[in-house]
Amino acid sequence: EQTLVLYRGTTPLRATLVSTGRKKYPTPPGVYRVLKKTLVTEFKSPRPDLIEYHIKDVAWAMHFTGLHAMHGAWWNRGFGANVSLGCVDIPSADIRVIFDQMEPKMVPGWWQTGATPDNPGSVIRIRR
User: Fold this and answer.
1) Roughly how many angstroms between the first and final C-alpha of the chain, as a whole number?
2) Peptide bond connecting 48 to the previous residue in cis, omega within 30 degrees of 0
3) In this structure, what are the phi and psi dihedrals at residue 5, rounded to the nearest 5 degrees?
């Protein structure tokens, strides 16, 4: 089973099943920071020659690389297994709480924000 645990310091705040990338489209392990947060976006395949997709209304996206994000996944029916295309799919019931806790903080009324030296992104650790 694949699990995300949200910590504040050493205190766990929330845990949920997630889905990371399939064998052909792995989620890269490592330590990252949230680079950008977006309330609602759409994802289109960067390489339609390899796999084509276009998903509208992807909620609460938190990019940690140029191609990878943690986000709500209303279409996912396999949480706990490797079924994504490289992102970290999070259930709709959990994503908003996680999004609100992660840095950089959103300015009220904005739909997107990015990390800055004064408002750095939260640390994300992805393990195999």
Assistant:
1) 11
2) no
3) -120, 125
Give φ, ψ of 102 to 5 degrees.
-85, 145
Tell me the pLDDT tens digit for each residue of 56-90. Answer: 999 999 999 999 999 999 999 999 999 998 999 99
DSSP the chain: --EEEEEETTEEEEEEE-B-B-TTSPPPPEEEE--EEEEEEEEE-S-TTT---EEEEEEEEEESSSS-EEEE-TT---TTSS-BSSSEEE-HHHHHHHHHHSSSPPPTT-SEEE--SSSPPPEEEE--
Q: Give the tens place of pLDDT for each residue, 87-116.
A: 999 999 999 999 999 999 999 999 999 999
pTM of this prediction?
0.92
Residue 71 CB coordination number (10 Å): 25
- How far lies 32's CA from each of 17, 49, 63, 121, in Å? 20, 28, 10, 9
Give the whole-angstrom CA distance, residue 36 versus residue 116: 10
